[in-house]
Design a protein that fits this description.
Helix content is 29%, strand content 30%. It is an alpha+beta fold and 177 residues long. It has a single domain, classed as 3-Layer(aba) Sandwich (Aminopeptidase), CATH 3.40.630.30. It has an 8-stranded mixed beta sheet. Strand 1 and strand 2 form a beta hairpin. Helix 1 runs antiparallel to helix 2.
């Protein structure tokens, strides 16, 4: 577990599912407003804000919690399997299901979780990380070393889709690796 004075980061567990879903609903419904039309958000948010049980049980998904009351402040993780397709390419990791409570942005929570993802992905042999960023998170990922590749549609069930930006960055291998 990584701790600061204001939050603790730990590996998520399957029993965190309800709290992660609530956090993602709060995050996306507020932080994505204005970047996407209301009708699009109303249609896709119920699909995008559900906690992914595979991620929660995989050991590569993290939550940041308030050290006093345990309330989740942020979440996110990574996988070698690409979102949507499950395709695995050698040495390529993928950012998965990041969110920060809208009242907690700007505190370094997302960056701290992403740093844990980078470290863990490198330890597993990843050399590059890909991200399908929401339109509102592009600046955050850019500040974390990602470069924009271009626009991409995330296809969802029921023929729905949402615009995002495909981004990528090289991962630093530890000295002597």
């Amino acid at each position: 577990m990584v701790a600061t004075d204001s939050f603790e980061i730990r590996v998520a567990r399957p029993q965190d599912a309800d709290a992660v879903t609530v956090l993602l609903e709060q995050s996306y419904s507020v932080l994505w407003a204005g970047a996407y039309p209301d009708d699009v958000l109303n249609a896709v948010l119920p699909l995008l804000t559900k906690a992914n049980p595979v991620l929660l049980s995989g050991g590569t998904f993290f939550v940041a919690a308030d050290p006093v009351d345990g309330r989740l402040l942020g979440c996110g993780g990574w996988s070698m399997a690409a979102p949507g397709s499950g395709e695995i390419k050698p040495n390529l990791a993928h950012v998965r299901h990041f969110g920060t409570h809208p009242d907690e942005t700007g505190r370094g929570i997302g960056r701290a979780i992403l740093t844990r993802c980078f470290e863990q992905a490198v330890a597993e042999g990843a050399e590059r990380m890909s991200c399908q960023s929401s339109l509102t998170a592009v600046a955050f990922y850019r500040s974390c070393g990602f470069s924009e590749i271009g626009p991409v549609e995330i296809n969802l069930p029921n023929g729905l889709s949402i615009e995002s930006v495909l981004m990528s960055r090289e991962l630093q291998q530890p000295a002597g690796a």
